[in-house]
Structure formats: C-alpha cells, structure tokens
C-alpha cells in the first residue's frame, strides 16, 4: 500500500462489514469505535451508487461503540453484552463479530467471546478485521475465511454441476448485485447450477452457504481477491477451484470465459458453442445498429484510461480494446494489490488483440495518479473510467468520464450489470450517452 | 466556564459541559436537571453504530477552500472524505463555483505503524500535502490508533513549522474519546482558534456566520446588508485568511447552537466579539430572537424591528393557509440537540403537535455556562413534552415510533428517516441546515411537511413489503429497557 494516500478508493479491513450485510439474514456486530460503521458504510454504501442500508445496515448495525473505558480496561465484557443482546433484538440467522483497530490493539479476546456463544449453539462467528491490517478487499477474504472455518460443515456428497460463484466484492463494486446475477445467468445457460452466496433471494445467503461444501467446483472470477478463500476451500473440503482472473465483459472475453468454465466443468462443447452463438448474435444485433453513431459522429473517444480496482481496470480494458477497438493509455489499479499478485495482473495487460499492450500502475493514491495523468499529452479527448474523484480531473484534461469504481457517488446503481454480453451493452450505452450528452 | 487557548486539546463535551447521550424523561425535567447541575448520563447495554468526533472534525475542516487535512490514521478513518467531497460539491453548486476535490491526505497507518509508530510517515504526509495543495494551513486530525499508540503529534508539527511556513494545527478527535460526535466540531474550532485566528488589527462590520453548506447565503447577505453588516460564512467555503480575521468581526451568529458554542464563546471571551446566544433562527420565534440578539450587540435594534415587521407581513396569509393544512397532525422529532429543541418549537409554530423529541445528545450548558435558550423556552411552555437522548440508537427510536405512530417523523442526520419510512411513517429529513430558516423558510418547510403527508404511498408500500430487522420480542418491549443507570 502507498505510504500516504489521497482520494479514498477502497477502505480498511473493517469495511468487510458490508460483505456480511450482502449475505441474506446475516448481520455484522462491530467491536469497534463509534464512527467506524458510519464512515465505512458511508463510503462503500451510501456514496457508492447510493447503495443504502438495506435490511440491517448503516446505523442499524450492532456496535460496541468502544469508548475510553474499553480502551483502558478491555472490551470483552462490553462485547459479550452487545452480542447477547443482539441475539435478542436483531432478527437474523448469522451474527459475525468484526473487530476494529481499537479492540485489536488493546488485545481483546474476541475469539473467546465468539466461542462462548458457539458453545451455547448460537450462530456467532468472528473475524479480526482491525482497519490497520489491510483493505476491505483483504477484509472480505478474512470474513469468507471465518465463515469457512467457523460456519461451514463438511458435506457427505458432491453435487455434480453445482458451481460456487466467487467474484466481485459486494458494495465495493456498486454493481455487484447485477454482476453476480449476470454471472449466475451465464453459468446456468451452460446447464450448470450456479451457487451465488451474496445478494437478494431466499436461495442465496445462508442456504447457498450451506451448499458450498458439496459443490463440484469453486469458480473464482477475480484478478486476486478470493484466491486465498478458494484455496482454503480446497484444503478443507477437497473442492477443486478454477481461477478465472478477468471479469468477463463483452463477447471476446465472455466467450473465452464460457469455454474455460464449460470445459473445466465437463460441459459438452456443442452446448458451450450454442450458448456463445446465441448471445453473440443478440449482442451484435445492437452493436451493428449503433455502429453508425459509434463510427460516424467523430466523437468516438480513441484512447481510454481506467482508474479502478483490478476487476474493472482489467475487465473494461479487455472489452474496450478487444471488442470496441479503443486504445489504452496508462491503466491505474487502485485496490491495493499486494506484490504477490501484481505480475500476473500485469501479464494480462500485455495480452490484448493485435499485440496491443497497456502500461499498468498499481497505486491507491489518487492524487499521485492525477498528477501522472496531467503529464500525458492527449491527442484526442480521452475516456476516463474511474470514480467520482476523477470528474474534476476529467474536466481539466477535457475528457469524457464515467464512474464505475468506488466511490461512484455520482450515480444510482440498482441492478445494472457490466458483466457478460448484457453488461457490455450497458457499458456501451453509458459511455456513449455521456459522449452524446456532453455537447447537447 | 473558560476557553483555554494555551492547551492543544479541548476537553470533550462530556467533561467540559456535562453533556449526555442517555436520558429519558420530559423537557421540563431535563431543563430542571440541567440548570441544577444534577443531570446524569445513562449507558446502554445494547448499541448500534453511531458516529465519532473525527468524522465531524474532518468533514467540517475539509471544506475550507485553501486548507489541507492530513488524516493520521488507517485508511478507513478517511472514508468520510468521500462523503465530504460530495458535500463540498453541493456547496460549490450553491455558489456557482467550479468543482474541486477536497484536499485530504491519509497516512495509511498499517500494522507495523501500530508497533513502531508512524511519526516519520506523518511528517512525509504533511510535507506532501504542502507540496500538492499549496495550502494556507494544514490540519492534522488524529485517530483511535494514533491516540492509543501515543503519537506525539504536537511536537511533530512544531518541528515541521520550522520548514513549512504556514500554520500546522493538530486536531484531537480520536473516536473512542467521546460518545458525542459534536466534540469533533469543538476540536476543529479549537484548532482554528489556537492556530488560525489572529488578534484583531481593527474592528469591521463583518459577522461570523457559523454554518455548514450555506444554502441561504444570498438571503443572509441581503438581510445583513440592511443592517449595514456583512456575513463571513464559517468555516466551510471560507479561506484561511477570512478565518484568521474572525476576531475583527462585530458579532458571531450560528445556525446551530451545538456547532457555534465553542467558537462563538471563544471569540467573545478572547477577542470581545459578541456571540448571539439566543434561539436559533428556525421559524418565526427563532428568527425574531436571533435577529434581535444580533441587533442588540451591533446597535441595529430599529433596523431589525423594521425588517421583522416587513417579513412577517409578507408571510402572514401563507402562514394561515399552511397552518390550516397541518393543524392537528402529530410529529416526532429526532435531531442533534440544538436543531432538535429548536425544531420542536418550529414545528409547533406550524400547528403540529410534537409528541416526542429525541436528540442525539444533550448539552446541559453551552460554553458560556448557560442552559441552551431553546431548551429553556420549551421547558417554559405550558405543555410538557416527552424527550429522550440517545446517540442515534435506531432500535430504541424505531420501537418508540412503532408505539407512538406519529403522522410525521422529522429528523436530521442520515440513516434515520429511512427506518421510520419503513415503518410506514412519512418522514422528512432536514439535510439542509437552512430548511426552516426564518419566516419564508418556515412556510417552505410547512409545505414540505404537507407534501410528505399528502402522498404517503412510498412509506405505505415499503412498510407493507419490507421486514424490520428487529425481533417481535424487541418491538413488544418498553423502548428504554436497555438504558441503564450510570455505573461510574
């Protein structure tokens, strides 16, 4: 992570409280300061596609609101009291204690508190997510690991065709609900049974979690987040995993994705190709029609920059280069990717159609990124796919800007998806609506 | 009560003013306990995520146009800068200014920093903030982590002042220290008072107008011009230079008693700038009181009376009309203490019966040692009003609203009205601090309430389809069973 950082584009480990909220009937219990929940929810939720508090988020999340007393005398007793009363007051089926910086520094024995409740048969688990430990993407992995270790039970059998889906990080990605639905739909089209944990619906959440150990495959669609989790699942339940590092956006990458998953899961080649053909035909129907405006208005941006987390930086680059014929300027990846994953992500940026490559910068410091971009000599109006922080910069460099990566405070996101064939169409609509509305 | 500018850290509200976050009773009892110094806080054995001082301090200071903030904390503590940036753009829009991003750098404290300290990192971040933003002042805000590991921020900044030729102000706002997030406003104003404000060179006709986004800016400029006065909007959207001259102003007024107490009384005590300690200017009675207070300290009593007469005449017929529409309705209010106690009165002026007032904390006294005027006025009314104090504890509030079933819930602070709406209660969020500002503001606000009552479909539909996150057991309990007596 950067030494210092301007323009928050991810938060701290405790931000994983939002991952708990993305599981139907699960509730986080924060063992943290009074302001942590509000700040993290504000940035990841409210100011990011206007994702709201939902069932039990925002100011409804139980929290010990650690004060001076707990800092001096320890917070175990306070935590016990809050967990005990949460079980009485909050209508939920899984309670996940998440620690903040303060309790981790003063050394509260949160595990012991959780175990006490577990011994009484209460659905209480815990993860130590003190903010200084890392990003919320890292925190998301901690939460999933805590669920694997403390909640999941081994299965007696493997259900053929059942595929667990692990991908975008809920709330960090403002379009996570739509994206997961789209991935779900693609996998189902292959004749497989997708098992999605995060998001709305009675078949998701705890019911989906219950099915995780009996899946045929853990499918991870992510540049790096979640890799530790699927490896952990393999160790624990012997479930193999498939790591697909690119968020598939558009026909080229989605076809590749469907073939990779289909072959790995033993789907007949004919079926895979049929799915691809059907989707491509639909996709190109729209693209063919829009080709007039894309090509003939002279407004088509030729060059683009992404300032985004690794999901979108990579996924969008693949789409814009391989499918839409745009050229990359520098690509900035802001989700605090640790060094162990940087090389494999960089390699993906060296592998586009027609031998095109893109320079990649890993940096969470938006101020430094903006300084860097100001030095680029643009020969046409660039397209900047970033966050709300980049609107000011885009004005400075006379760009077209679309917020796709946290914080997306300038858009309302409901069920929009940027994944697959449908998602690619949405992205084209959004980009060119900005281009067209810019001069009208 | 005295404001000490020789120390780098101001005491939190609990210790300085005896402020509380746990109370249930009536407004008359509350006022009586406040004036007899017998008010005791109560803790809760269940709580939900509230808010902290650093959010208030950072959010407030980051909108000073030519200052920079260094947040000495793990990155999550700077998460509020996302909201602040959006807020800042709102205020820029009001002023027709070009957008900028707020100047906030975070030291990104990580695990090893909690062991070895991060003073070197902090120095680098302050130098970088100076290089990047070319600010006229840098505020360094603390965090739970920097506080617990004992970072000596004052010394670091003293050292750096030798190489960086602008004020470098520490702002002590560790989240764990106070349950009252408004302590963060005091921390911000203490930094401004100690590091930015200069002794007066002369006296001016300026009036320090303490506020947030300043949407009523144009109206205030025009109103004060009639009294030969000129507002300086503090602190968001002001410059460091403007703030440094607050000591030269003819008076200080505030949109919010909670917000204004420390800076207003501090400027009065140290530089003789009179602070108007009347009701706040919400509704008719509030505006009368506030303007007369300003008139009294600036010698503009006659001009003020003329203005009040004119404005009241302008709204007279509208007031009758809106009162007729709203008469007989009931409301519950949930806000910070100054807004809460002022809005109860304001809503009453519209003919609505306020059946409960919840405030997010309560100050039994301000920094002048006196009970807030808004509280005293409510307590002096014939009808006593049930009140409670809680740091935005939704479970308590939702249980209460479910029992009281008011026609309206009127709240300030995000994350409150949404829950009341889910209960089927039409709710109005007072996000803009000038929502019921003075005479015309009262009328506009009345129509806003009336609109909320006229079409209740969103609240009705939501409540019939979404489930509240509380157990049936909890919803059947008394709202305040988790409020326990103070142990200490």
Number of helices in the DSSP assignment of chain B: 21
Mean pLDDT metric of chain B: 97
Mean pLDDT of chain A: 97
| Number of DSSP-assigned strands of chain B | 15
Unreliable segments of 5+ consecutive residues of chain B: none
Could you tell me the number of beta strands of chain A?
A: 14
Instruction: Give the spatial strand order of the biggest sheet of chain B.
Output: 1-12-11-10-13-14
3D shape of chain B: globular
Q: Return the structural class of chain A.
A: alpha/beta
What is the helix fraction of residues of chain A, given as a range? 40-55%
**Beta-strand content estimate of chain B:** 5-15%
Residue share in β-strands of chain A: 5-15%
Question: What class do helices, strands and sheet pairing of chain B give?
Answer: alpha/beta
State the separation between the terminal residues of chain B, measured CA to CA: 24 Å
Which residues of chain A sit in consecutive blocks of at least 5 with pLDDT less than 50?
none
Radius of gyration of chain A: 22 Å
Sketch the major β-sheet of chain B.
Answer: 6 strands, mixed
Radius of gyration of chain B: 22 Å
Features of this protein?
heterodimer; A: 440 residues; alpha/beta; 17 helices; B: 488 residues; 46% helix; 13% strand; globular
Write the layout of secondary structure elements.
The complex is a heterodimer of chains A (440) and B (488).
Chain A: E1 5-6, H1 17-21, E2 26-31, H2 36-46, H3 68-73, H4 76-89, E3 94-99, H5 101-106, H6 110-119, E4 124-127, H7 136-150, E5 162-166, H8 176-189, E6 193-196, H9 205-211, E7 217-221, H10 227-237, E8 241-244, H11 251-264, H12 269-296, E9 303-308, H13 310-322, E10 327-328, E11 331-333, H14 339-348, E12 360-362, H15 366-374, E13 383-386, H16 390-396, E14 400-403, H17 420-439
Parallel strand pairs in A: 2-3, 3-4, 5-6, 5-7, 7-8, 9-10, 9-11, 9-13, 11-12, 13-14
Chain B: H1 13-17, E1 23-26, H2 27-35, E2 42-44, H3 53-61, E3 67-71, H4 80-94, E4 104-106, H5 111-116, H6 119-133, E5 137-141, H7 144-148, H8 153-160, E6 168-171, H9 183-196, E7 206-210, H10 217-226, E8 230-234, H11 240-244, E9 251-254, H12 257-271, H13 283-298, H14 301-326, E10 330-335, H15 337-349, E11 353-359, H16 373-380, E12 386-389, H17 394-404, E13 408-411, H18 417-422, E14 427-429, H19 438-454, H20 457-465, H21 472-475, E15 483-485
Helix pairs in contact in B: 2-16, 3-4, 3-9, 6-8, 9-12, 13-14, 13-15, 13-19, 14-19
């Amino acid at each position: 992570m950067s030494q210092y950082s301007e323009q928050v584009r991810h938060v701290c480990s405790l931000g994983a409280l939002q991952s708990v909220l993305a599981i139907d009937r699960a509730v986080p219990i924060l063992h943290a300061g009074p302001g942590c929940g509000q700040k993290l929810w504000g940035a990841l939720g409210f100011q990011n596609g206007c994702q709201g508090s939902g069932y039990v988020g925002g100011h409804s999340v139980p929290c010990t609101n650690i004060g001076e007393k707990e800092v001096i005398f320890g917070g175990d007793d306070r935590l016990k009291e809050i967990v005990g009363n949460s079980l009485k007051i909050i209508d939920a089926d899984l309670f996940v204690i998440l620690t903040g910086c303060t309790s981790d520094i003063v050394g509260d024995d949160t595990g012991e508190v959780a175990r006490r409740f577990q011994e009484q048969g209460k659905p209480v688990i815990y993860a130590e997510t003190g903010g200084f430990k890392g990003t919320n993407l890292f925190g998301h992995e901690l939460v999933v690991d805590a669920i694997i270790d403390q909640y999941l039970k081994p299965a007696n059998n493997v259900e053929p065709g059942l595929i667990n889906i692990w991908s975008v990080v809920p709330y960090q990605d403002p379009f996570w609900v739509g994206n997961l639905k789209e991935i779900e739909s693609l996998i189902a089209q292959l004749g497989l049974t997708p098992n999605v944990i995060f998001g709305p619906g009675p078949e998701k959440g705890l019911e989906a979690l219950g099915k995780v150990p009996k899946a045929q495959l853990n499918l991870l669609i992510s540049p790096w987040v979640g890799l530790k989790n699927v490896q952990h699942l393999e160790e624990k339940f012997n479930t193999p995993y498939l790591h697909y590092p690119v968020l598939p956006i558009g026909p080229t990458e989605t076809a590749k994705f469907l073939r990779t998953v289909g072959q790995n899961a033993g789907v007949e080649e004919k079926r895979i190709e049929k799915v691809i053909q059907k989707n491509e035909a639909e996709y190109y129907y729209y693209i063919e029609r829009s080709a007039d405006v894309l090509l003939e208005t002279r407004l088509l941006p030729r060059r683009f920059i992404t300032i985004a987390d690794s999901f979108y930086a990579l996924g969008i680059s693949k789409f814009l280069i391989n499918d839409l014929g745009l050229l990359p300027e520098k690509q900035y990846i802001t989700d605090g990717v640790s060094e162990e994953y940087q090389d494999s992500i960089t390699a993906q940026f060296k592998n586009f159609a027609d031998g095109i490559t893109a320079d990649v910068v890993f940096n969470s410091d938006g101020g430094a990124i903006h300084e860097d971009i100001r030095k680029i000599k643009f020969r046409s109006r660039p397209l900047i796919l970033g966050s709300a922080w980049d609107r000011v910069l885009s004005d400075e460099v006379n760009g077209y800007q679309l917020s796709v990566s946290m914080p997306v405070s300038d858009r309302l996101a409901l069920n929009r998806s940027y994944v697959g064939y449908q998602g690619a169409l949405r992205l084209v609509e959004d980009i060119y609506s900005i281009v067209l509305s810019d001069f009208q | 009560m005295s404001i000490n500018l020789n120390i780098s850290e101001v005491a939190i509200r609990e210790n300085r003013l005896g402020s509380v976050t746990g109370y249930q009773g009536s407004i008359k009892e509350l006022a009586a306990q406040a004036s007899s110094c017998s008010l005791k806080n109560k803790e809760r054995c269940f709580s939900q995520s509230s808010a902290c001082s650093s959010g208030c301090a950072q959010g407030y200071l980051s909108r000073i146009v030519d200052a920079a903030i260094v947040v000495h904390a793990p990155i999550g503590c700077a998460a509020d800068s996302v909201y602040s940036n959006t807020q800042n753009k709102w205020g820029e829009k009001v002023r027709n200014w070009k957008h900028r991003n707020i100047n906030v750098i975070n030291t990104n404290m990580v695990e090893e920093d909690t062991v070895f300290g991060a003073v070197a990192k902090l120095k680098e971040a302050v130098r970088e903030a100076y290089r990047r933003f070319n600010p006229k002042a840098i505020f360094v805000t603390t965090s739970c982590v920097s506080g617990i590991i004992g970072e000596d921020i004052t010394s670091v900044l003293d050292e750096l002042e030798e190489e960086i030729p602008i004020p470098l102000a520490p702002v002590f706002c560790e989240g764990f220290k106070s349950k009252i997030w408004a302590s963060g406003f005091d921390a911000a104003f203490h930094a401004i008072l100690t590091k930015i404000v200069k002794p007066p060179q002369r006296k001016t006709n300026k009036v320090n107008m303490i506020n947030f986004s300043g949407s009523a800016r144009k109206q205030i400029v025009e109103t004060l011009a009639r009294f030969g006065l000129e507002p300086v909007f503090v602190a968001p959207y002001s410059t460091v230079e403007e703030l440094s001259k607050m000591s030269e102003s003819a008076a200080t007024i505030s949109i919010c008693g909670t917000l204004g107490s420390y800076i207003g009384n501090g400027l009065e005590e140290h530089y003789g700038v009179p602070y108007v300690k009347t009701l706040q200017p919400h509704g008719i009675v509030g505006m009368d009181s506030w303007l007369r207070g300003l008139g009294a300290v600036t010698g503009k009593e006659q001009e003020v009376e003329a203005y009040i007469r004119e404005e009241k005449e302008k709204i007279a017929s509208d007031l009758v009309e809106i009162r007729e529409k709203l008469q007989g309705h009931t409301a519950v209010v949930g806000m910070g203490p100054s807004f809460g106690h002022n809005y109860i009165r304001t809503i009453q002026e519209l003919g609505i019966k306020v059946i409960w007032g919840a405030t997010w904390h309560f100050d039994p006294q301000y920094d002048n040692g006196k009970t807030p005027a808004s509280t005293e006025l409510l307590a002096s009314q014939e009808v006593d009003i049930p009140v409670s104090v809680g740091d935005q504890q939704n479970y308590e509030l939702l249980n209460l609203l479910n029992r009281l079933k008011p026609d309206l819930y009127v709240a300030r602070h995000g994350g409150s009205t949404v829950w009341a709406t889910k209960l089927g209660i039409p709710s109005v969020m007072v996000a803009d601090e000038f929502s019921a500002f003075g005479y015309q503001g009262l009328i506009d606000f009345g129509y806003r309430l009336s609109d909320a009552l006229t079409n209740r479909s969103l609240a009705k539909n939501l409540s019939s389809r979404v489930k509240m996150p509380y157990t049936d057991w909890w919803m059947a309990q008394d709202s305040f069973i988790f409020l326990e007596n103070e142990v200490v």
